[in-house]
Design goal:
Blueprint lengths: L9 E4 L3 E6 L11 E7 L9 E8 L2 E4 L2 E3 L6 E2 L4 E5 L3 E8 L4 E10 L3 E10 L5 E11 L5 E5 L5 E5 L2 E7 L4 E6 L8 H7 L8 E3 L3 E11 L4 E11 L2 H9 L6 H17 L13 H13 L15 E2 L2 E2 L1 E2 H13 L3 H12 L12 E2 L18 H17 L6 H13 L1 E3 L2 E3 L12 E3 H20 L3 H19 L2 E2 L4 E2 L2 E3 L5 E2 L8 H4 L6 H13 L1 E2 L3 E2 L12 H13 L3 H13 L10 E2 L7 E2 L4 H12 L1
Antiparallel strand pairs: 1-2, 2-3, 4-5, 4-12, 5-6, 6-7, 8-9, 9-10, 10-11, 11-19, 12-18, 13-14, 13-17, 14-15, 15-19, 16-18, 20-21, 22-23, 24-25, 26-29, 27-28, 29-30, 31-32, 33-34
Protein name: Glucoamylase (Glucan-1,4-alpha-glucosidase), GH15 family
InterPro entries: 6-hairpin_glycosidase_sf (IPR008928), 6hp_glycosidase-like_sf (IPR012341)
Organism: Anaerobium acetethylicum
Length: 619
């Protein structure tokens, strides 16, 4: 079956700014075009509802993929062409048929604190066209909003702990409009359409619409390119310093240099990089850039679309964050890997020493999205393995010996069934209730095995022996879940009955990735899953559950990585190719695909899925 391209939703950001971007009809909301959900330095304050170039032509406003006229509802335009340039610049082209214009929007972020918008408008008609172009931002959040026009003639906005400015080369129209108290705009569009400028400083707890720009005349066959930027800072003084050194003419070159040098820095550390498949390099770079874009001081959001949010803040999962850290490590970006692990180490843990499953935008524990299974001790496995692999590559120990010993104690003190640790929710967060899960115990085994190696190198023979004992016990327990009749490992045991849960569970592919031996039973399980857990030929499902019924991207990519590790190169290429073909219009990966309609995907994009493509490529 040939799929349509999934809606383009991009992850855009730099060292201090992270956001999603979509002019590809990504979010059904009058404000959901261009930048949507933007955070500065921390994930506790969603600053911006919308940011895009706005174009006024006669009786019409175009902004992002929206066409607005006073007498009717906004129409959603579909881009005629979408692509990503050099892994970081998102580009969409629109035909503005009513006005014989072609509009190409592009956006990119780089460096410390800026996002730049470029809009090229080409006149395809036989007469000159008068158009006005604006930097447009809508701000609506639960904190006070203040705006004014700086001495450099740029709109400056302050809300919460963030200051930012709309920077244009030259503007002669300014609008700062206190709009509705809801999430929906009204007055802003009318005033811009009717040229009712408002330059007076605004202080409001309602919605603020801000725009500044100028008028152009485009001859037949001619074009203009309009540039503007959002620049962020911690104070008005810092912002003014940033503005004074701003040069539009070098931004594109600086951005290309920034991202090219960053990717090369990592790849210079990757062994046998010249042997990597060029077929997937562009896609790997796009997804690698995306996970870098949303890494704010070590906080990795599960997603930025709003699905995995709590109290209007993105959620941080211990599991997902380590998966992303692993991708950075494999791609040679040790700094980002270390930053993520150190962020997790600083988080509060439960009384028994285990990590919480998830944390809110403030970094505080925030459970509740895991079907009331309030343990997820498999994160101990991920953690032990990432610390060990980091030590192998850098010679630096990310976690103190005492912390590793505490986490070992979490597994030793946990309940056990047939030798397996639990009960907990596992990767699929308790779909069958609290359980002693085969895949979880594979991860735990791999992590404890890594800790044994670390303790040995540190001369701690007592803890190394304890690790060995735990691994032996867990391995024996895992073997009791092997289904001889079907030739696969079953899901595991639940805490409410004695019988094994006879369901497949494809996260078992991550077992060997994290250090579990590729024993005969695992090889049999692999053959079983290829035959029985597949959707749309090469997509891999989850655990025979109904949640997101169909193939999941990170499960498919875990299968790809497994195949790569054990010499099944053709199967690896097939799984990677399938994943790339099921990326969104910007090349980023969703969480899953609907089993009933291959043209529908879920959670687009998912940070972990993007990271797993990177990990599978750089493995």
């Amino acid at each position: 079956m040939k799929t349509k391209t999934y809606t383009g939703v991009g992850l855009i950001g730099n060292e201090n700014v992270a956001a999603i971007y979509t002019v590809n009809n990504g979010i059904a909301d009058i404000n959901g075009t261009g930048i949507y959900h933007l955070f500065y330095k921390k994930y506790d304050h969603d600053l911006i509802q919308s940011a895009a170039t706005m174009v006024r032509v006669e009786d019409t406003l175009y902004y992002g993929n929206r066409k607005w006229q006073e007498h009717t509802h906004p129409n959603h335009l579909v881009p005629v062409h979408t692509h990503v340039e050099k892994s970081f610049r998102y580009v969409d082209e629109f035909e503005l048929i009513d006005h014989c214009l072609r509009k190409t929007d592009s956006v990119y972020a780089y460096g410390k604190n800026r996002i730049t918008f470029e809009t090229r408008i080409f006149n395809e008609g036989n007469h000159a066209k008068t158009v006005s172009c604006f930097a447009y931002v809508a701000v609506r959040n639960d904190r006070q909003i203040e705006s004014s026009i700086s001495g450099a003639k740029d709109i400056m906005i302050h809300t919460g702990n963030a200051y930012f400015a709309l920077i244009t080369e030259d503007s002669d129209e300014f609008y700062m409009i206190e709009d509705s108290p809801t999430d929906f705009s009204y007055q802003t569009f009318l005033d811009i359409m009717e040229k009712k400028e408002q330059r007076k400083a605004v202080r409001t707890s309602r919605r603020l619409g801000a725009a500044q720009g100028k008028e152009f005349v485009i001859p037949p066959g001619g074009s203009i390119t309009y540039q503007w930027s959002l620049v962020f800072g911690d104070s008005e003084a810092e912002l003014e310093r940033e503005i004074s050194g701003f040069h539009f003419e070098i931004q594109r070159t600086e951005a290309e240099q920034y991202w090219d040098e960053w990717i090369k820095k990592g790849e210079s550390r990757v062994e046998h990089m010249q042997e990597k498949e060029d077929k997937f390099r562009e896609a790997a770079h796009t997804n690698l850039t995306a996970i870098k874009a949303v890494c704010l001081n070590g906080f990795i959001p599960a997603d930025l679309t709003g699905h995995y949010y709590s109290n209007r803040m993105p959620c941080y999962y211990a599991r997902d964050s380590i998966m992303v850290a692993r991708a950075f490590l494999m791609a040679g970006h040790y700094e980002e890997c270390e930053e993520i692990v150190q962020y997790l180490i600083k988080r509060e843990r439960k009384g028994n020493g285990e990590f919480y499953q998830r944390y809110d935008g403030l970094g505080e524990p925030n459970e509740g999205a895991n079907n009331n299974v309030f343990h997820q001790i498999d994160s101990v496995g991920y953690f032990g393995r990432i610390v060990c692999e980091f030590y192998r590559k850098t010679g630096r120990l990310l976690a103190e010996e005492g912390l590793l010993a505490e986490l070992l104690g979490v597994i030793e003190q946990a309940e056990d069934r047939k030798g397996m640790a639990g009960p907990e929710g596992g990767v699929n967060e308790g779909v069958f209730g609290g359980a002693f899960i085969t895949s979880s115990n594979m991860f735990i085994y791999g992590g404890i095995l890594a800790m044994e190696e670390l303790f040995g190198m540190l001369g701690n023979q007592e803890c190394a022996a304890r690790c060995q004992k735990v691994c032996r016990r867990i391995y024996e327990g895992i073997q009791t879940t092997f289904n001889q009749k079907l030739g696969r490992y079953d899901y595991g045991y639940v805490d409410y009955c004695d019988a094994v849960v006879r369901k497949y569970d494809t996260p078992q592919y991550f077992g060997p990735v994290y250090g579990y031996p590729n024993d005969a039973h695992m090889q049999d399980t692999h053959r079983y899953l290829l035959k029985n857990a597949s959707f749309f030929e090469d997509g891999i499902g989850y655990s025979e559950q109904e949640y997101h019924h169909g193939p999941w991207l990170f499960n498919t990519l875990a299968c790809a990585e497994y195949c790569k590790m054990y010499g099944e190169h053709d199967e690896y290429l097939k799984k990677m190719d399938w994943a790339e073909k099921h990326a969104n219009a910007y090349g980023l990966l969703p969480e899953a695909v609907d089993a009933n309609d291959e043209n529908i995907c879920f959670i687009n994009p998912l940070t972990w899925a993007c990271a797993e493509f990177v990990a599978s490529y750089y493995r």
